[in-house]
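Record type: monomer structure entry
Structure origin: computed from sequence
Chain ID: A
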Amino acid sequence: MNVSNLAWRISTFSGNGQSCVEVAPAAESVLVRHSKNPAAGLLSYSYPEWNTLIVGARGERCPFAEVSSSAVVLTDSGHRSIAYTPTEWRAFVRGVTANEFSFRREEI
């Protein structure tokens, strides 16, 4: 899949717009990468998994995130992981709360 053609977005709550969870809806899934290092890898969530992720992030109990004081590690069902700083994760969660990442498959 050519990911450069996707509409990648980060939370408007990301301070400098350069360090955040970066998200793009695709035909079969929602893709996630790190805006600081997009070539480091992608996570892929089916639309039902994505809904679970954002509902969990709103409630601070995201089943795909391991949260510690120094990092938040997102993992997808393929066991791929990306680590974010707590500040980057908080910006993403604020964006989730503001409905910036509410995608439905039929909208793509």
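Annotation 1: Residues 13 and 91 are 5 Å apart (CA to CA).
Annotation 2: The longest strand covers residues 21-25.
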